[in-house]
Every structure is written in C-alpha cells, then in structure tokens.
C-alpha cells in the first residue's frame, strides 16, 4: 500500500466510523423515550427525585450502579419489595434492623408521608427503565443477592410482585406496617425462609412455593385431610412455623419418617411478635 492508498484508507475508515457512531447516537436518542418510560415521568416522580437528592440518598445507595456502594443498589427495589414494605421501612428503618446484630442501620430521615409516597414513585419509575439487565445481581435491603424474576431454585428468592401499577396513591392502611415487618422476617429469619420457599407460583424448591398459600390452606382445612390443631388460616400458618410436623404434606417430598424437613426452631428463634408479623405477611399471599 502506497502513501496515497494509506491516506485514502485512513480517511475512509475515519468517515465510516464517524457515520456509524452518528447513526448509533441517533438511534439511541430515538429509543430513549421508550427505554426510560418517559411518559410515566409525573410531577410526583419528579418530586420523588428531588426527595432523593434532598436527603442525599446517593451518598449510601446506588441507582444504575452509580452511587456510594455503601448501601444496597435500589435500581430495581420496587420489583423486590412491596409498596407496604417500602413505606414502613422509610417511616422507621430502625424497626427493621438490630444495630448490634447487623452492624448497620439506616438513619431516620423523618420523611413526610408525601415525600415517602413520591420517593417510592420515583424508585418505581427507575425500576421500569430498560437498563439492559443492569445491575446483574441487585442487592436487597437484607444484604443478600437475589436472582431475577422467574428464578425457582432453593436459595434463590423470587422478587415480590410489584409494578408501576402497584405503586399508587393508595393510602397505607394500619395493617400494612405489620405485614411489611413480616416480609422482613420472612427474608431475614435464621435460617431464612427464602432459602427454601419462593413466592412465585409453581416454583418449588427445597420447600413448596408459598404463592397462593392462603387459598391452599383454606382448601386443606375444608378437605377433612388436615392433621393438625388449627381451625383457621392464621392458626395453620402459625402452626406451620412453630410446629412444622403437625401436618405433613402428602407425597413425602418435604418430610421423612413423619418429620418435616422444615426447621422446628422458629418457635425459639423468633419472638411472638415476629411470628405474628410473619403470619400477617403470609396471609397476603392469596
């Protein structure tokens, strides 16, 4: 290749690269409205973003992998935590952690109810941005990793159902706090419930999926095949937690020699209040 050919090649390569770069840039801008669900940017979402900046949430948390990496990434948090949980957590984060045990505690920000509602709306908008699967392993507020939607293996918690339609202006009723605390117990009790049970229909692991547990319990209590002492759904759920061998699922998949594979230590490791909270959460799994 002589000098003239080399110059032509260099100029041609530069122009081709510039055209490709310009085309990709224009195509990206064309897709931004859909990728960022811009049509859902409401005044409440904008105010929620202002709340995020006002309280310097990014000093500890990350969105889209950008932030301080001190506390969990919240990019998809509304797909992993229910609205009730997020509201209760933001009102009083100290009730979800024991600082001596967990060695960390989110500061009490004293957010107003309006700020909480709008911040959750902002986080839900963030969660619905098409970020091409980033972050690949979102970190939950319990500090553990979770698999993406549809995961079904033992030890792979499935996200709690939530979507842009679930994060609305509905007032949080008085029972939401106890149910949200129960969700926290479900994910943090030792051993953790999510290590064996998923919340996705049909996604059985070391333990059965808990999706639809209320409906199945009602059918069991009415069937005449129930072997335990409970008389209602709440009683059955409490019994299953503290005395899992009181009634054994048929088929032998989750028990052997008349003993459930589920640990029988929760009656000792959980307080009565925590058991009550856990039962309240499980009763939401219709």
TrEMBL record:
The chain crosses the membrane at residues 6-26. Gene3D superfamilies: Cytochrome c-like domain. Residues 155-169 have a biased composition (Low complexity). InterPro entries: Cyt_c-like_dom (IPR009056), Cyt_c-like_dom_sf (IPR036909), Cytochrome_c550/c551-like (IPR051811). Residues 148-171 are annotated as: Disordered. Keywords: Electron transport, Heme, Iron, Membrane, Metal-binding, Transmembrane, Transmembrane helix, Transport. SUPFAM superfamilies: Cytochrome c. Residues 43-127, 177-286 form the Cytochrome c domain. PANTHER family: CYTOCHROME C-553-LIKE. This is C-type cytochrome. It comes from Alcanivorax quisquiliarum. The lineage of its organism: Bacteria, Pseudomonadati, Pseudomonadota, Gammaproteobacteria, Oceanospirillales.
